[in-house]
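To assess whether ligand presence alters the predicted conformation, the chain was also submitted together with calcium ion. Input:
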Amino acid sequence: MSKVVSAQLSPIRITSKVSRQVLLFIGCLCFAACGDQAGQTDQAPNLVLILADDLGYADVGFNGCEDIPTPNIDRIAKEGVIFSNGYVTWAACGPSRAGMITGRYQDRFGFSRNPLFAPNDPNMGLPLSEQTLAEALQSAHYKSVAIGKWHLGAHPTQRPLERGFTDFFGFLTGGHRYFPEDWTLADEYEVASQYQAYRTKLLRNENRIEEEEYLTDALSREAAQYIDKYQEDPFFIYLAYNAPHAPLQASSKYLERFEHIENRKRKIYAAMVSSIDDGVGRVLDQLDSLGLSDNTLVVFLSDNGGPERVNASDNGPLRGQKGDLFEGGIRVPFAMRWTGKISAGTQYDQPISALDIFATIVAQNSGQVKLKHSIDGVNLLPYLSGEKTGVPHDQLFWRRHDQGKLAMRQGDLKFQTRDTSSFLFNLKNDLGEETDLVGQEPEKAQELRLAQEQWNSQMMDPVFMGLAFDSIYNVLHPDRFTRPESQ
Ligand code: CA
């Protein structure tokens, strides 16, 4: 419980009316100063969305990590805002990404499971009825680049270039091995089972390529290069690292930094986090050197909580881990920077969601972007500037359909149900979700149960089989990895 959020950074907390007025005043000064700069403010802002994979809540410096220095990730936090209550929409990879990239609860369109790697299945991934952020930004003339892990469908109709992205560099499945010598499969049709897809060669757009760098370094390099390439356009860089997701593999350059860590698993994990941190530094330096930082929203978060037993991650004081609807599964390290727009050293403590990234960048392009659906996120900037008071979300919801689990957050309260069981926690004084209050507050529990059921009634059943159905799927689809005759 000692890892208190960002105590060492002495952030500005937006908690009082006075501080909001001060921030508003500072914001006005910034706006007046920035307005004098030529050109910059006329162009739509860029978005650099940096996603880590299976990173623990307490494994970044800005959330109190002591054994893994993350000075570059911390730069985003120090120069912008730390969200101490930042959530993703699911406790594992695929659905969390589907929610974030559409700005909608993924259960609305049945993306309620981690998809299988099934390159011949047009329904195994993000339904074409949905609009990705890259598609939404097309009408505002953004160049959008997906780098790293996709995990939203491997069928040719579901790949990044079909979903609004200008460029793609990475891999289609839910994970990948990290060293080039392991990438022995020429393409997706040489794969014979789910996890063999971790061994395919990388894709640049639609072409398989030879790559020589450690995977995380290659992804960072590409991000920096695409920022350079598209510096004259508004751009959206979606940098989806697969580190520090298993398999735990790190290069000696990073391992050498962690000789002080005795636990072997934690040592490799730390090296993988450090490789991301170097990459974040490369991206931030590139934005600085090109003079783009004032016009670029940079977001950093993890796609779900750390699976502590699998990769030796640490969710600190939070209960549970990846897969759980306890805080350890869904509350993640989350920070945002927009130089001149978001006051440096801010800490924001109200619950916010990965859904809000979509809404925030779209709001900067009002009039230019036509949304296909109503979205569930909100523009966070007015809350950070103090222009809007109150909370961005009265309620947030989560669902694990196959486990019969629902959860919701309302104010300080966290309510969870599993079939007929229910639990109520007050996170304000029980962050570890240890003391169930259902017996003490039955009326409140009933009120939240009804709200949860109302939300769930708007959601769809899953539209594809997930990881747990791997062997059944194979029986039903003997052509799962068969190369189509047209290729
Ligand atoms: Ca993940």
